[in-house]
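Section 3.1: Structural characterization of target chains.
Under the original work plan, the team committed to producing a structural model for every single-chain target entering the pipeline before any wet-lab resources were allocated. The record below documents one such target. The sequence was received from the expression subgroup and is listed exactly as submitted; it comprises 533 residues.
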Amino acid sequence: MSVSSSTPVSFAQCLTDCAQRTPEQIALIDRNQPTTYRELNAQVEKLAAGFAKLGIGAGDRIALWLPNCLAWVQTFLACARLGATVLAVNTRFRSKEVADIVGRGQAKWLVMWPEFKGIPFADILSDVPSEITQGLEGIITLGQSPERLAGHQPIRFEDLLHSTDAIPADYGNNGVLCYTTSGTTSLPKFVLHDQKTLIMHARAMIQAYGYDHTSRILASTPFCGAFGFSTLSGGLANGFTIVSEPVSDTASTLEQIRLHGITHTYANNESILKLLESAPTPELFKTCKLFGFASFSPALGELLTKAEQARLPLTGLYGSSELQALIAAQPTDSNQGDTSVRYVAGGRLIHPEARLRARDPASGHVLPYGESGEIEIKTPSIMLGYLDNPDATRQAFTDDGYFKTGDLGYAVSDTQFVFQTRLGDSMRLSGFMVNPVEIEQCIEEQPGVLACQVVAGTKGSKVAPVAFVILRDGARVDTATWTQACKRVLAGFKVPVHFEIVTEFPSVQSANAVKIQKNKLREMADQILGSMS
């Protein structure tokens, strides 16, 4: 399949091109039900007509609160055609978070699935303050719904999908999609992207990830987040096939791989490890050309070994809501970059004109390759800005247009880097910037240790590392052995002064994965050091 070299400025143009070029190519397989590009284009046109009759148009904000399904895709594409902006709502959010997005995001309409099995959408909405829901012009629902929902008479999605009104013209490029940041320490920010930028990023993914007309791209991560949406758009904007279902777990993902001959997918390292551990035979992965992983969870050393045994091609990834997910992947070919770091997070920027650098957060100086600092990136896939927040937008960029990622890492070249940790998670010990991951990996190699997180605790003027450890089943605490192991391979100031045994790490659920709340661990570390004599 050849894809036009010119970049469309709208998803309507992309969809029309695909429907004309390869009408019977499958666009989406949702719960094993295929929809072709011809069918999807016709559905989106009718839905856009139905939305337009309700008064939805350019500049309106639509809260899209659905799991991964055909209706999510139809709604997004219909809003794009009309010039409306989608506020993507995480299906794991509850009433406080939904109220924040609908209220602070100034949503006019809400699209939801009240009877969806597994998530009590209607119950959650009933807990949203009435002054928020009364500000909506209406609620659009899939399937059966009560006669009244949060003070509104719901409008059936299925009726709008069969509208007989005139098909609206393509509005063209606009700010079309807002992600929410994870908000682990403050209110989430709304990250706004326009259509052209999203499509430009999707086009860059073709060569970077080796897509062609035979590709079957599994989208198991929620579309409401950058990780899931980039997976979706990399297929749909280019005329390839996306495979998805509303709820995914290890067993269902393995079944999708078996049924549909999956070639590509992207997930966190823990999810891919579970696939490898649960697969009945390595032959299950014979169609897989590339699995990308991001290190959202604690280090899992078994991943690479099991991937090699299954002959599953892996590469480390990087992305963010502001830059788009999958903007970087570690090269698999030495002609493309340094392959010695292939299995760590970070990567080679996929846009030819994109550039990066590392800056010392203390001195402000740009650092030479190999030295750790804050990663700054300039790329065509960058956000328009934070919605309704120009001050935060200005603070996020350097004077010459680089986005300040807030991530600690080092540049391998001006197009490739290694991600180490969030800058706020790094530690300054004895005057040195320390990446906690190197300490965590040392401890996780010790007998009995399942996972470890290390943070800096403070007592007066003293700053020291504290390790939080989850034990393997039946394992015994052996802090003396762990301490000696650290002393053998690490500088003395990196050796934890205390090992705290926990059953789990404090975490927050984002659209992409469960993220460990290091700020809460630091509070715990301060308390521990404060109680030590």
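The mean pLDDT is 91.
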